[in-house]
Design a protein that fits this description.
Length: 257
């Protein structure tokens, strides 16, 4: 497989009133093309900081981030980002929100419209193209956000706790919707979550970061077959993997999950 993301010795430091604070220390991590990798760890361990460095929004203080073997020096069309909140423009319809990246880049509207319609349809929103965010549920808004991030067909999708604000039933449906889109388009996904079961159900690998300063403490291969289906949550292999990650997080100083 081809290495899509390569982090070597990534360290990141922030200035605070009490002095410098080291958020990440010597992070080494790779993700292969088309791989789904979940990042877990306690709050403040640097997961979001790491995503920002991958996205080219924040330079590391030390180390190097590479995408497709090329050093990251700034934001790239190759990277799409989905946040915990959908961040939709309230005066734009679902379709218009999805089209925003293409309009910002001045891309041909015909091709962008066709791609936006296909994405929204694949996420069950084909009948809601002209709806404004206020007329969409939280899950539907997040589907629009994911479609917007995928519009330019990025090779990498960064997701920062995208389902954390959703109820349990909606969240489980979003897992299936995301996996369907990922299977069809196969971007490399880095997915930040505090939910161990979510990480294990979605990912090929689960990467545990240590408490701040965050560094890679342990990597877990998820031995579940794909495509993932809801009944796998009752599989003994699923339960055993969740227990393994949970134990490591507790040993790591993390009691949540």
């Amino acid at each position: 497989m081809t290495t899509k993301i390569e982090a070597r010795g990534i360290s990141s430091e922030f200035a605070t009133p009490s002095g410098p604070m080291l958020a990440l220390r010597d992070v080494d991590l790779t993700a292969q093309a088309g791989e789904f990798v979940a990042l877990v760890g306690e709050s403040g361990c640097g997961k979001t900081t790491f995503l920002r460095i991958v996205a080219g929004l924040l330079p590391p203080n030390r180390g190097e981030m590479r995408i497709d073997g090329v050093a990251v020096t700034g934001p790239s069309r190759e990277v799409g980002i989905v946040f915990q909140q959908p961040v939709l423009l309230p005066w734009r319809t679902a379709m218009e929100n999805v089209l925003l990246p293409a309009q910002v880049r001045g891309l041909p509207p015909e091709q962008a419209c066709a791609e936006a319609e296909a994405l929204l349809a694949s996420m069950g929103l084909g009948e809601f193209l002209d709806r404004f965010p206020r007329h969409l549920s939280g899950g539907m808004q997040q589907r629009v956000s994911i479609a917007r991030a995928l519009l330019l067909q990025p090779g990498i999708l960064l997701m920062d706790e995208p389902f954390g604000a959703l109820d349990a039933i909606t969240r489980e449906q979003m897992h299936l919707d995301l996996l369907n889109v990922w299977r069809a388009r196969r971007p490399t996904i880095l997915f930040v979550t505090h939910d161990i079961a979510e990480a294990v159900f979605l990912a090929d690998r689960v990467v545990l970061l240590s408490p701040r300063p965050g560094t890679v403490r342990q990597v877990f291969e998820v031995p579940l077959q794909r495509p993932r289906v809801p009944d796998q949550r009752f599989d003994p292999v699923f339960a055993a993997t969740c227990r393994e990650v949970k134990h490591a997080m507790q040993t790591n100083g993390e009691g949540e999950g």
